[in-house]
Amino acid sequence: MASRRKELSHERIVDAASRAIRREGYSGVGVAEVMKEAGLTHGGFYAHFPSRDALLAAAMDRAGQDGADRLSQGMARRRAEGASPLRAWVETYLSEAHLTGCEGGCPVSALASEIPRQSPEVREVAATRVQRLLDALGQVLPASAGGHAAVAVTSTLVGALQLARALGDTPQGRAVLASARQAILDQYDHEDASPAH
Amino acid sequence: MASRRKELSHERIVDAASRAIRREGYSGVGVAEVMKEAGLTHGGFYAHFPSRDALLAAAMDRAGQDGADRLSQGMARRRAEGASPLRAWVETYLSEAHLTGCEGGCPVSALASEIPRQSPEVREVAATRVQRLLDALGQVLPASAGGHAAVAVTSTLVGALQLARALGDTPQGRAVLASARQAILDQYDHEDASPAH
DNA sequence: TGTACATCAGTGAACGCGCGTTCACTGATGTAC
DNA sequence: TGTACATCAGTGAACGCGCGTTCACTGATGTAC
What we know:
The structure is a homodimer. By secondary structure, chain A is an all-alpha fold. The radius of gyration of chain A is 18 Å and the shape is elongated. Chain A is built from nine helices and no strands. At the A-B interface, α6, α7, α8 and α9 of A face α6, α7, α8 and α9 of B.
């Protein structure tokens, strides 16, 4: 029967790590830094996880949940303003808030190119998160979209966000986001127009 | 007047590093390993570069040239078989060879999510490479494609390759590549069909 | 052509530092009586 | 309700290791005469 106190510490550690990996990358995250951010000293770490890799795996899972939660909130707000599910999703994912707010965003776009180089346990969790992202896209695409649309649009979202971040907080970076949004909506969001059209 | 011998060593170092960053990521590359791969000992490194970061920047530039060269070769082969410029480019970029051959491929897709966390000198070179990739896409798209197409298709290519690699060498990974190829060509490659249609 | 010398690319040992991991200890918590 | 004790989450010093970087030295190259 694990103590409540330990559970709370565990939560803080995983939370801190889930933000750290998105901010610094897997390779930029150290045990000591995460423990400090969780208000603990690094020595106690191995009472919570058998290894740094086990922490990274748990952090990736948590980051996926957290990113999905926040995206859902942004999406609900835009839905309330009348946007179609696809438009709401695309405008949230490719928002300027997501461009600059890596730490609270989607871990797939924050970490994609590092995933193939991680340990099997991290890759496994990451693959599940990629699959969930593809599934989420399938749910917001209109029925008229082809069978390849979910993969294509997810790829565009993840790729565009990374290219924009690589270009930095510049006009070019923001232009990448704008172009990607436009291109996706032009192609897939036809039934979002008012019914009269 | 630098000696010919030193120039040759310099080339080998940059070449080794350009492969290493694509294989292991920026953070996975060490000075000693690169020097060893170039057939030298690590002590001599600082006669060639002022710092590890300077090496990473040079390696990124070289990787961009190398990746572009190889993509051009694959594209020329497919062009010779009758493919349109866009089809040739897309089938080369999203080929199984590029999926598994990270080391000789496009450094943007190999490193995208690590770029924002690099030193200014590395980010600058990387941003140039992103821009070149966007320009290259602009040249293979048909004139009928909209103004956002180059950004959208580049994002899809980079995103799809990374998602496929994240899913590993599995049926799902290969399915991502196939779907992305199909979706891009369905949308933008209409003038590739025989003129009679 | 041959010898003496200067240059300098490359060697290998050493440095300080930060990292993941271990472990003996502490002190707060909560149960037994 | 109060005291004695067991448990165990967390502390902090220490470990081995690999890294980026430095530096005194070596030995091959090529020029001067």
